[in-house]
Amino acid sequence: MNRLHGRDHELRRAAEVLAGTRRSGGTGLLTVEGAPGIGKSTFLRAVAALARQQGYRVGSGSAEESSRMLPLTTLLSALRSGPEPLLSEGDFAELGGLYDRQPWLVERLADALAVPAAHGPVLVLLDDVQWSDQLSVVALRVVLGRLARQPVCWVLAGRPDPGGALDRVAGAARHLVTVSRLTLGPLDADAVEGLAREELGGEPDPALRRLLARAGGHPLLVSSLLAGWRPGPGGTDPAPAAAGAALPHQLILAVRHQLSTLPPGAVELLRTGSVLGRRFTLADVSEVTRQPAARLMAPLEEAVRAGLLHEDGDGVAFRHDLVRQAVHDDLPVSLRAAVHRDIAAVMTRQRRPAAHVAPHVLGQWPRSGAVAATPEERRAAADVLRAAAGEIARATPAAAADLLQRALDLLPPDSPERLDVGLEALTAAAAGLQVEAAAELGRTLLRGTTTAGDAARVWWHLARPLRALSADEELQRGTAQALAALPPGDDAASAPARLRLRAVHAQASSRGPDGAAAAEEARGVLQDALRLEDTAAAEAALVALAEAAAWQGRHHEALVPAREARLRHGGPPRSAEIAALTGLERYDEARALLAEAAEVHRSDAWETLPEHAWRRALLELYAGRTSLAQVEAEHLLRLGEDFEEFALYRAEAHCVLARIVGTRGDTATGRRHVEAARALLAPRNVWQRLTLHVVDGRLAEGAGDDRAAVAAFSRALDLRREHALLGAGPDYDSAPQIVRVALRAGAPALAEDAAANAAGYAERNPGVPGIQGIALHARALVDGDVDRLGEAVRVLATGPRVPVHSVAAGDLAALLAVARRRAEAVEAWRRASAALAAWGASTVIVDPRALALRPRDGRAEPAGGTRPVSGWGALTGAERRVAERAGRGGTNRSIAEELGVSPHTVSTHLRAVFGKLGINSRVQLAHVVATRPDAGELTRSRP
Ligand SMILES: Nc1ncnc2c1ncn2[C@@H]1O[C@H](COP(=O)(O)OP(=O)(O)OP(=O)(O)O)[C@@H](O)[C@H]1O
Ligand SMILES: [Mg+2]
User: Fold this and answer.
1) Which residues fall in a coiled-coil region (predicted)?
2) Atom number in ligand 1 closest to CA 219
3) Under CATH, what is the fold of the domain 612-648+684-849?
4) Cα of 212 to ligand 1 centre, how many Å?
């Protein structure tokens, strides 16, 4: 192993990162990129030594090409390396138990690594990340973020790989930690000279100097040339390569030259070893080549003497992986495949895990180039890949799907297993939430099917990904055609296929105008499924029933089949049931189910994790626990960023966040979330689009742009009509707001529409206080009916929805004030403010124009000089005028218009008001305005 030559500048950069991490006590990330053999691993060793000098605890590991399929090996190899590993044995064992539950595993990993970091700075070095397994990359991105404030320094090295692991980790970490990037280039002439002197133990002679000059500062090539160089009269030019030839080629030539000087036994050893991997054991070579190990000793010594291999623990290793690769790539393809086949056979005999055998199976069948093989051989190879996929499917379904796809490619076109393997691949892809890929695979499989029964099977599996993509129409059409293609009559073969097709057809029709027909169909399917004892079809039918009812906005009706699905079939709580309970405002029951689901996630089915985080966020938003909702939505967003599979849910997370920050009056952030959601939106997802229109409207209203608000709300309602969507949606909740804006902006038809929608929803959901109260509220605003509004408030008070209750109470106060029912108005106003403050929203809903109160202009100010410095009495006349209007919900713009000053002046006054009153939000201001000592005079000054 060489001492480090050159690289002064790069080492200084690394030293800065280490010192920075130690000083700031926060994470630093350094990436080291460079061509194969340029000296990344050598550099990393120097960084590790430097870090130890600085008091760091160091863990280092590297990814290996052959272990790409083994989840988390890359990261764990680093955390368990060395005499004093960063992860304790206990932690390691615990993590093993979480192997196939990614999110928890990753959380625990972060916790475990925080332990050594609490005692001092920690450095984790990961080499060859271009080969890291998928789960390690995911874990790295997450753990880096989680430990952002711990003194943990990460150094990751890898070959250039645009969009590869290094880029993905650095990209994700960019916002969280300081990222420094280094690219290693060739060594300078001095470093090359130093390297040569060290290797030779003396001065290089002129011939060697000339040769070294041609290595272009590439250290591996330099050291390979030196290794093959025999000083003295026999010294030949070992690399007669044209100057400028590609480096790997030159290296192959250099290695080939070295091989040509070795006896055949050593060459065979090296060749077999090159297929086994960078490190291998003589026992393996002996098994594969069917030679006694004793006979390998002399060849081994030759190879070591030539500097190609060195001893490594209880095995041997190539001096460098590129040397191994050079030997490997120089093997004739057919020979290489034969060695891979022998190795695979030996490993299978030894019952090694299929995931270890799989690379050698793949090695026999390069992706490109037809390989002559019997169908039997292909089938056997595909079997190994299927087994390997089975081993890793739970931990990394996406990687399993890749393997299955390769197995599919291997199978001869006419082999009967094709459909099975294809469906396994589709299922794995869907479980990894790669729904696009799963759908595409299903479509391809469909084209290859020859019988109606096979097509029916494909449609059955396609239901999940296509519905996740909101491609209900495609599914509906396809299953209808497949049903028509089934032979008539219910013989033993076609009856089950027909049943499942009908189940999928019912599901596909449930979210749309044919809801009633879909429900009818689903009921039929359910009966037949129970008779035929097809539990999966029965469950699909129950889900279809629940979803049809949900689309119709009938929550009671949706709850029954959703609950039955769980009770009858077990497993984690279904989303449909949680959605129904949420719709019915039975939040505690929904929360309990979500908690139960979380327990199940720990052991299974983590792919429903984001869906449930989203449901929890919505639920808490309705219940008015806004900060909890925000935590959930942010968690969801993070999940979507950390786990590619969950990216689907990022749009939902942004929608929820936009609604939350909208209620706080933070229009700018709200808009950012809307934009982000819109960019990620699934175009066919009606619910998402509806939500965005409503959020748009509310943000426009908050910004004082009533016309834009009306336009956005109208779009939402049109969308509902177009898709016959009667299910829950944010426009129902916002019906009173829509009515108010519509009336203000002179759009009575929209007001009428919104109120009618809310009334219809209420009719379909008797006994649900929030839904009933909102409908009453909206109607009361349309009719200006204060008593009906009073009833709305009373109904809402019996339910758990704090936000809608407080908004209604606020409106009631306003209407009462207009009706000059002063005492009641003040009482309602007080309650509204208290509820609002508890809820944490900062928009005050009451519009001063609705209050129809005139400012108490001309009221005498306290005599000069005696005005207190804080409290209401400290305000100047102008400040009071602004405070009163703002406290009753005026926007800066509307107040400016009303008082005939600029919005800038208004905000200046407001700042002063906040300072004198010692408050920092409009909610607090509303409270002060409503409860100040002279509040009783609210209406007295009316002209
Ligand atoms: N700065 C250096 N000083 C001395 N020797 C070096 C230096 N850099 C690299 N080498 C030598 O060059 C060879 C290749 O370097 P190294 O293994 O570090 O490359 P790498 O970039 O990690 O390659 P790979 O991409 O294959 O992992 C090593 O055998 C090492 O001895
Ligand atoms: Mg390396």
Assistant:
1) none
2) 12
3) 1.25.40
4) 16
